[in-house]
Structures are given as C-alpha cells and as structure tokens.
Design a protein that fits this description.
The structure holds 3 protein chains of 3 kinds. Chain A is an alpha+beta fold. Chain A folds into 2 domains: 2-72, Roll (Ubiquitin-like (UB roll)), CATH 3.10.20.30; 83-156, [2Fe-2S]-binding domain (DNA polymerase, domain 1, Orthogonal Bundle). Chain A has 6 helices and 5 strands; from the N terminus they run ββαββαβαααα. Chain A starts with a strand and ends with a helix. Chain B is mainly alpha-helical. Helix content of chain B is 42%, strand content 4%. Chain B contains 10 helices and 4 strands, in the order αααααββββααααα. Classes of the chains: A alpha+beta, B mainly alpha, C alpha+beta. Chain C: Residues 210-296 form the Aldehyde oxidase/xanthine dehydrogenase a/b hammerhead domain. Chain C: GO terms for molecular function: oxidoreductase activity.
C-alpha cells in the first residue's frame, strides 16, 4: 500500500510504485480533473503540484509522491476561486477545456513565484503546456488578469 | 615535484596559490585513488601525475575530452543560450525551458518537473537524474560553439569553471550528471567513448599540464 | 412527413421520474427542413415536464436545456442554450444545461461537423423556444382569466402587465402542457434580443477550471475495466499471430484477445489488453509481441505520394466539378499566363484528449459514453455491426477534449462495444497518443495545379485542378465516378460573376492511407492554393492584392468585408520593411478575411507581428465564442502551415507523439485581433471558417516582405 496525500486528504492505494502518478490519481483515487495527453511529458495536460512544483504526473512515479503533498486541479481552490480560475472564467479561456487543468496548475506556480509576470515570464512558464484549440492568447491575458486579482486580494485581506 | 607543480600553478591555476602543498598532495592522492577506484586498468600512473607539463600528451588527451564534451550527451546541457539543447541533433529543447538562476529551470518549467530521479522508460521520454540541471546563470560553462582551445581555457579558469580547483575538476569526472551521459535513456547515442576512457583522458589532460590545443 | 404519420411514442422518451407521458414535442424528421410541432398526451402526477426535446421545466420552475450537439470546444454548450433562453425568456444563470443523448427522432441531425450546429438549427430552436414561451403565457392568461396580450414573459416568469401579478414557469407548466401548440409564432427582432448577439461568458467554463467537467476519458462505471490495443504500424496489417505471455504477467492484466474495428468500409485488427487500470493495460500492450501480415496494400512513402500527384496534374485534366466559359481556350490563347503548383501536407487531428470510449454491452443492448461528434452514425454503425436494434444502442455524450473531425468516426466506439461484449463487463478503451498519431485517418495531402490568363490587368481565366485523396472514397468504399464535391471548397462564389472563365477539376488519386475531415476540411488546403495563386495573379496583373479582390468580389457583402479588413489592418498605411498579406476564403456559409503582417527581427529572420481576421458569419449568437474560434483556428492553421506534418515512410507514419508532431506553443503565437461583421444574413458556420485564410495570408505577406514565394506547406519560418 502506498499512502498519498492529495489535496490534503490521505489515500491508501494498492499500486506498483512505478505506476505513474497520473493513473494512480485518475484510476485508483478517482480524481479525473488531471488529464492524460501524451504520456511522455510533452503536453502538460497532466500537471499536478508535488510539494508545490508543477510536475508532470504522466512520468512521475507514484513512489516519488509517497508521503509528499500532491495538489490536483480539484484542490487548487475550495470554491473555484483561485485568481487564475476567476480570470479564466472572466475571459472564457477554455474551448474544449481538456488541457486547462494542466494550464492552470502550471500558471499557479508562476503566479506564486512571480506575482507580477511579464509576457516573457508567461512564455517561460507556460511553453510546456499544449493547447490544441489555440487558447494561448487568452491564457496570456488571463494570467495578467489573475496577477491583478491576486494583488487586489492581498490588499483587501 | 614541487617545482613542476608550482610551474603549473603559475601557468594556469591562480587559485592553487591559495591551497598550498598539502592541498595539492591531497589532490594527487585523491586523483590516484579515484582512478583506481573506478577499476580503470589504464589508470593514471604516479609518473604521469608527477611528470607535469607534457604539452603533446596533454593536447592529445584534451582532444579526446573535447570529443566527449561536444557530444550531445554533454553539450546539450551546456548550451550557448539559456535554453538547453535536446536530442542527438542538439536542437533547442522543445518548450524552451529556461536556465534560471540556479540552472534548475523556472516556474512551472523546472527540470525536475519532467526529469525524474531515474530515466523514464521508453523512447523519447525524459532522461532522469536526481540532480538534473544546467550550469547556473552566474557560471554557464558553455560548451556549445566553443573551440577546443576556448573550452580548455575555460575549463581551467576558476572564474568560468565554478571556482573548481584541481580536486573538484578531478571529481567532476565522476559527477552524477556527467555519468548520466553514459546512461542517457533509450534511443540516445552514447558519448563517443566509454566513461573510463573519458576519465583517463580527462585526468591525463589535467595531470600533464592542462594544455589547451592551439585551435 | 406529416405529424400524423409519426407515432408519438417514437419521440417521447420517458424522462420524468414517473416515467409517463410528456406534453409537447418538436419532431425533427432528419429529412425535413423545419421542425413540426406536435402535441402529445399528458399524464397527471409527474413533476418534470418535457416541454420539448430541448426544454424541460419542472414544477418548481427549474429549467433544463438540452444541448443536442457535441461540445468539443466550439461552444454549442453555450450557444444552443443562449438561443433557447432568449425566446423562452429565462436567465442563463437559472438554467441547467445537459447533453442530449443521441436521438435523431427528437433532435434530427446531431452530427457535429461542417460548422453546422447553429446554422442548421437556430431557426428551429428560436421557434420551439418561442412556442414554449407562448404556451406558458397562455396558461397564465387562462389562470388569471385575462387575454394573453396583457401578459408577457420575463426571467422565467409570466407577468400580467396591468396588475403586476406573476407566476413562475413551474406553476404554469402543467397547464401549458395541456394546450395545443400555437401556430404562427412571432419571433423577436434582433434588436430586441437580450442574450443573442451578446458576448456572454460560457457556462461550461467553471467546470473546466476545477476539473469537474466530464470528458470521455473521465467516465467511470462500476466494475469498469480498462483496455489498450496494440495496432498495426502499417494501417492495414492483419494479425498473423501474437504472444501475450509477458503481457499477461503484468499485475492487473486480465485478458488479451484479438479485436477488429471498422473504419468506415475497412476493418482494422488489433490485440487488446484488458486490465484493472489504464496503466496495467498500457504496460501489457507494450509487452505484446504481434506478427503482422502487411501484404495486400502498398507501403507508400510521402515523396512518392506528391510525385505521383504532381505528375498526374501535368498529364490529366481530371473530372470537372465546375466549369464556366472556356478556361482551356483562354489559358491556351493567353498572352500572359501563370501555371503553378502548390502542395499541402497530410495532417493529424491530434485532439488533446486521445481517442477513448466507454462501452457497456448487456446482451440485448449496448450503452456508449464517449467523446463523440456523430452520435447517430455511431448508433447506426454499432447497430449494424452488433446486430442490435437501433434503440438498443444508447449513445451518451460527454465533453470532447477536442474533435476537429476525428471524433466523427465510429471506429473507437465500435471497438469498445466489441471488447465489452467479449469480456461481459463495461470497459474503457484508451488510445495512446502514439495510436492517435499513427493510425489516422488524416487530412489528405493535396497537390494543386493552378493556371490563369491575365490580359491588361484583367483576369481572363482561372483553371484549378487538384490531386489528393477523396474522403468520400473512404466513406463509400467505392471507386467514385464524379469529382470530389469539395474540389472548390474555400473559393468565393462572387468570383464566378466577375471572371468569365473558371474551372475546378479533381484528378483522382488514392493511396491506402485512410483520410477524413480535418477542421475546415478541403478548404484548409484549397484555400492555400487558391488564395496564394490569386496573390500571384495580382502581382502578374500589377495590382495590389487587396484591390484585386475588391475588383472581382463585387457583391455588397464582400465589399463590406474588404472595407473592414482593410481598415482594421491598416492595409493602406503600411510602413516600409513590413510585409502584408491578405487572403479571403469561404466555407460552411461563412467568409473570413485575414491580413498577416510580417517583418524581420534583429537577426534578419521573418517573424509574424500581427494577424487580423474579419469573420462574416451572418446572424450570430455569441461574438466572444466566434472570436475564440477564429483565434483558435488561426493557431491551428499556424501549426499546420509552419510546424507539423504527417509523413509516411514504407507504409508507416513517421510521427508518433508531440516530440515529432510538434504543436504550436504559447511562444509561437502572434497577437491576433478578430472582428465579427454585423448583419442579419443567414447564420454561417463558426468553428472552422477561420482556418483556411491564415496560411495564404502568411505566405503572401512573406512574399510581400522578401519576394520569396512559398508554394509548399509546411515551411519553417526560421528558414525563410
């Protein structure tokens, strides 16, 4: 049995330690917000946070996550109100939406480490996430908006 | 022995002035022990170490070293720019991961987000290492585009080599990431010689005066 | 077909808790242009009323709107309810939106392709929603004993104007359901719209930002198994033998067997590994050893394909699709003629959600859940293949993680159904990215030969012919005797009025490669040839490319479109050292003009500075969704023009995953500005028409800047 802490909840799963975290999360834990896109760390659809870092769960073995803190899209905020989620909704960023769990999890690390990202910073943070629908212009716009929302939130709190 | 080493110091290693004889002795001991520890049959003899300044042997050794360093397995993580290279053709790494200050990537694009502690099985999957990184921003140690002459000079310049002294340079041959070049994951070509051969050339080069080829 | 001929039971699916009859239905025979409204009986005691197939209202006033089309990013989940809510007079925030099951008797054509959702159903949706509203108003008027004229509907309520009394819809639905549907419903004027035409936020966004949207891959059933299939690397290989020893040793792998799935008229074989997790199935698949018989079909390579096409274009006239005047004579006698060849590549759809499907075969029926663009085709196909009555093949829709045409096929649901039948349990079949990339069907690679005669600045003749695989060939499986009906797709009809001699012909060309629709279909490649060629003609005629289009597209609608693109792009205020290119294409009843601006960066490399697009899709619902679709189409076109292509070597596809079928990334995207024309013409498509104009506008701009003409896609921007 492997003990996983996902979104502050502990799960005991019966899995080979080499099983990618992606499939453990989706098939064994049953959280399906994290997506399978390529299986080889090319597309970013499977990004989750492992101790705060935006790891690609399709190549991260579940053994690496044992006893560590995993955060999936379902745990990004309690009420779908992370500044990025608010901005994504405000701007209607997703089209098919399949890649956006990964896009948001990647962007969340960017905003945490750089509350005021430039276009170049966004390029540096987001070039690992593919969107076949081509929502890139809106992703960029929404990250800028989320940075603003995050600042406002901090000043009001 | 002392005099030859001092000459070397004068020639190349300003930093050695600070180390003193004991340090140098330690280096040589560790060099010998390292060489034998790896089971290298053609190990560097004491004579080679002691007999410094053999420019011909040194340059010849470096040419071997250079071939390895310029192979994709080494050069790809010593790029001219701030984006690593990828593949046997050393193209710019897909998705343009950035070096970052520590050489470990930035934001959502940190090396270890994809590069696991070990190689991911299969072709075209991220190779792994627990400490996957590029040289840091303040010490980029660029291989890409360097001539053998430039690279040799650069490797011996503490201002450019990460303040590595002889001991550290010797040790670097067995650095985990250097060794990873010989365990590159499925589908990637190996460096042009074995690690043992490389290490022998590396040590030979260092111990014969670390001469830089003319070009 | 008249209403009398329709058995009411046919369309009234029992959806209420009580499972009894429902009140009002709108029957859409698939052949009929317009819906026919019919009444059905009503039973007492039920709480949830199907006002019609799209609208359910329960006695508490909760309104549920059913989206009858696939949602694959194009926005039907928002735009269909936005239309209905307008005439029904309900707030978007107060409604529930659900996917309809596949049911042609209730919904008519549900095939989500050809950018058809709005343009083929908006008139009916407006009418049925207004009808439901009028019945609710009438029910209220009857309750109050007043005339309907004194009442109006607003925000889910009927209000008696003089007294201010109001009922919510839930209080009226029982009575309304007993009324006869009124005829001659008057629809709102566009100026009175509160929702239609407004850039409302999409209702599916919240689900797509917190992981709760259920895509095909997210569907789970109790006891569901997972399956992965090892497929022939050569598209049509047959299994000689396979060794499952190693696969069966993987913990969690339960069964390995041969499976066969239909791709239209052909069948493909594979070896399936069934397991208790996706991971186990994928591991088992990797360990299978399959021997393939690759005989009986040509092992083709890409260079051969294009060589043959281009040889054929020089030798054959082909089958004419359209011909006016005598372009042959005009070209033969022309003083100044052009004769040029353009080439466009095969492409993979590569939706982010790899193909997958859940099937549960239960003896007398099979139920399917998946990312499906064409539920009735899946229903038809599985019904025929598994010999089940149509109504025993139940197709449930999920969100699609992209479709672009690929998810309109029946192969992957068919395969899932067969596997479920074999194992006697529900199963989810997951295609790997490699399966997705290497199996096709693909957009066909096409070569074009374009000829023109130009005299004294006038276009005398245009003669187009193409050689490329015909998707209809794959659907029918028969050798076709008429020209590909999409041969001129992308070309603007007004040119026929201003240019005396025009012809379009198809030089028939086939290979064993399965091909099928890819976003904007033939317009996606035709547009490149036609609009590049017109640019070349403009230069040959010593005319500004925009002026040339203005001169030959004389209808008012085109003129306005040209005015707009010229204005927003600053076409006439161009600076030195900037290249501008224009292209205008039409497909699926919408016309899009694009201008691309390029310049050289500090290293002398050509870069794209800006893209402007103007979409004329006539009557429209949500301008923000339209803009998003055009933005996305441009990004997809950018990838297909400058980044990726599918190539074949010895009968095998060379690309396997995103490492060698590279996608545009956020770093590749220029600023894009989209404008939507405002008019009340019939609604046109939105999801696809923004794509074809991009590639030619880009290469025309590169020519403008550098004098270098690009006639073959894809090309590498870095090497221009």
């Amino acid at each position: 049995m492997i003990s996983l802490n996902i979104n502050d909840k502990t799960y005991q799963i019966d899995a080979d330690r080499d099983m990618p975290l992606l499939w453990a999360i989706r098939d064994l834990v049953g959280l399906t917000g994290t997506k399978f896109g390529c299986g080889v760390a090319q597309c970013g659809a499977c990004v989750v946070h492992l101790n705060g870092e935006a790891v690609r769960s399709c190549v991260t073995k579940v053994g690496r996550a044992e006893g560590q803190k995993v955060l999936t899209i379902e745990g990004l905020s309690e009420h779908n109100d992370h500044p990025l989620q608010l901005a994504w909704n405000e701007i209607s960023v997703p089209q098919c939406g399949y890649c956006h769990s990964g896009q948001l999890m990647s962007a969340a690390v960017l905003l945490r480490e750089n509350p005021n990202p430039s276009d170049e910073d966004i390029d540096h943070a987001m070039a690992g996430n593919i969107c076949r629908c081509g929502t890139y212009p809106r992703i960029r716009k929404a990250i800028h908006m989320a940075a603003e929302l995050q600042k406002q939130k901090e000043t009001t709190e | 022995m002392k005099s030859t080493i001092n000459q070397l110091i004068t020639k190349h290693w300003a930093v050695f002035r600070l180390i003193g004889v004991m340090g140098i002795m330690l280096c040589l001991v560790s060099l010998m022990s390292l060489a034998s520890n790896t089971g290298n049959k053609a190990e560097v003899s004491t004579a080679t170490l002691v007999v410094k300044k053999d420019s011909v042997a040194s340059v010849a050794a470096f040419k071997k070293v250079y071939r390895v360093l310029m192979s994709p397995r080494c050069m790809n993580c010593h790029p001219a720019g701030d984006v690593p290279l990828q593949g046997d053709d050393s193209h710019l790494h897909t998705m343009s991961p950035q070096r970052g200050l520590e050489g470990k990537g930035v934001y959502a694009m940190k090396c270890s987000n994809c590069h696991q502690p070990t190689n991911t099985p299969g072709k075209n999957t991220p190779p792994g290492n627990p400490n996957w990184h590029l040289p840091p921003a303040n010490m980029k140690m660029v291989f890409e585009g360097r001539t053998a002459h430039q690279l040799a000079k650069q490797l011996m310049d503490p201002k450019q080599n990460g303040n590595k002294d002889m001991k550290k340079l010797i040790e670097h041959a067995d650095d985990g990431l250097v060794l990873a070049g010989w365990n590159p994951g499925e589908g990637r070509t190996l460096p042009p010689m074995s690690h043992a051969e490389f290490k022998k050339a590396w040590l030979t080069w260092l111990s014969t005066g670390a001469y830089a080829p003319k070009k | 077909m008249s209403t009398e001929q329709v058995s009411r039971r046919n369309f009234l699916r029992m959806t209420s808790v009580a499972g009894t009859a429902l009140c009002l239905g709108f029957y859409f025979p698939s052949s009929a242009e317009e819906a026919e409204i019919i009444n059905a009986g009503i039973a007492d005691g039920i709480k949830d009323f199907e006002m019609n197939a799209w609208i359910h209202i329960n006695v508490d006033g909760k309104v549920t709107i059913f989206n009858h089309r696939a949602e694959m990013g194009q926005g039907s989940y928002q735009s269909v309810p936005q239309i209905i809510a307008e005439e029904l007079e309900v707030n978007m925030k107060d409604i529930d939106i659900r996917f309809a099951q596949g049911d042609r008797k209730k919904y008519g054509n549900q095939v989500t392709g050809g950018s058809s959702t709005i343009r083929t159903s908006y008139k009916n949706l407006l009418k049925l929603s207004a009808t439901a509203r009028e019945m609710l108003i009438l029910a209220a008027a009857n309750k109050w004993g007043v005339t309907a004229q004194e009442c109006f509907a607003e925000a889910g309520h009927v209000i008696h104007k003089p007294s201010g009394k109001k009922f919510h819809y839930g209080e009226l639905v029982v009575d309304a359901s007993k009324l006869t549907a009124p005829a001659n419903i008057v629809l709102k004027e566009r100026s009175a719209y509160k929702l239609i035409g407004k850039p409302l936020k999409r209702q599916d966004t919240p689900m797509k930002t917190d992981g709760s949207a259920i895509f095909g891959l997210d569907k789970k059933l109790p006891g569901m198994k997972y399956a992965a299939v090892e497929r022939s690397p050569r598209l049509h290989g047959k299994i000689v033998s396979y060794d499952a020893t190693a696969a069966l040793k993987v913990p969690g792998v339960q069964k390995v067997f041969k499976v066969r799935m239909g791709v239209f008229t052909i069948f493909r074989e594979g070896v399936v590994v069934v397991a208790n997790s996706t991971w186990a199935a994928l591991q088992g698949k990797k360990l299978l050893k399959v021997t393939w018989d690759d005989s009986g079909f040509e092992h083709i390579s890409s260079p051969v394909i294009f060589e043959r096409q281009q040889q054929a274009l020089q030798k054959e006239e082909g089958l004419f699709l359209k011909k006016q005047g005598d372009p042959d004579a005009a070209v033969a006698a022309g003083k100044k003629t052009l004769d040029l060849v353009y080439q466009t590549p095969y492409q993979s759809h590569s939706a982010m959600e790899p193909l997958n499907c859940v099937a549960h075969y239960q003896g007398d029926k099979v139920e399917i859940w998946g990312p499906i663009q064409a539920p009735e085709w899946v229903q038809d196909y599985i019904s025929a293949q598994l010999q089940l009555p149509l109504e025993k093949v139940i197709i449930n829709m999920t969100f699609l993680g992209g479709g672009f045409g690929r998810k309109a096929f029946m192969d992957y649901p068919h395969e899932a159904a067969l596997i479920s039948k074999e194992i006697g349990a529900p199963v989810q079949v997951v295609w790997t990215r490699e399966d997705d990339a290497t199996q096709g069907p693909y957009r066909p690679g096409i070569s074009y030969r374009c000829q023109a005669s130009v005299e004294e600045g006038e276009i005398k003749a245009l003669k187009f012919r193409m050689a490329g695989q015909n998707n209809d060939q794959w659907r029918s499986g028969k050798k076709l005797t008429t020209a590909n009906r999409s041969t001129s797709e992308g070309f603007l009809a007004p040119y026929y009025k201003s240019i005396p001699n025009i012809s379009f012909a198809e030089v028939q060309f086939e290979t064993p490669i399965p091909t099928m629709w890819w976003r904007s279909v033939y317009a996606s490649t035709n547009g490149f040839a036609y609009e590049s060629f017109l640019d070349e003609v403009a230069h040959a005629a010593a005319q500004d490319p925009m002026d040339l289009r203005r001169k030959y597209l004389q209808d008012e609608r085109s003129q306005k479109l040209i005015d707009k693109i010229e204005e927003v792009s600053g076409w006439k205020k161009r600076n030195k050292n900037e290249g501008y290119g224009v292209a205008i294409t039409e497909c699926f009843a919408s016309t899009v003009a694009q201008v691309v601006k390029v310049s050289k960066d500090n290293n002398g490399k050509v870069k794209i500075d800006q893209v402007w697009a103007v979409m004329d899709c006539g009557w429209y619902v949500n301008p923000d969704i339209i803009k998003a679709q055009v933005e996305g189409s441009i990004v997809m076109a950018l990838g297909a023009a400058t980044i990726h292509e599918i190539t074949f070597k010895d009968g095998m596809v060379e690309q396997r995953n995103f490492y060698n079928y590279k996608m545009p990334r956020i770093t590749d995207i220029p600023p894009i500005e989209v404008f939507v024309m405002d008019n009340t013409e019939n609604a046109g498509g939105v999801g696809e028409p923004g794509l074809p104009a991009f590639a030619p506008a880009l290469t025309n701009a590169i020519f403008d800047l550098t004098g270098k003409r690009i006639r073959k896609l894809p090309f590498d921007m870095a090497s221009v």
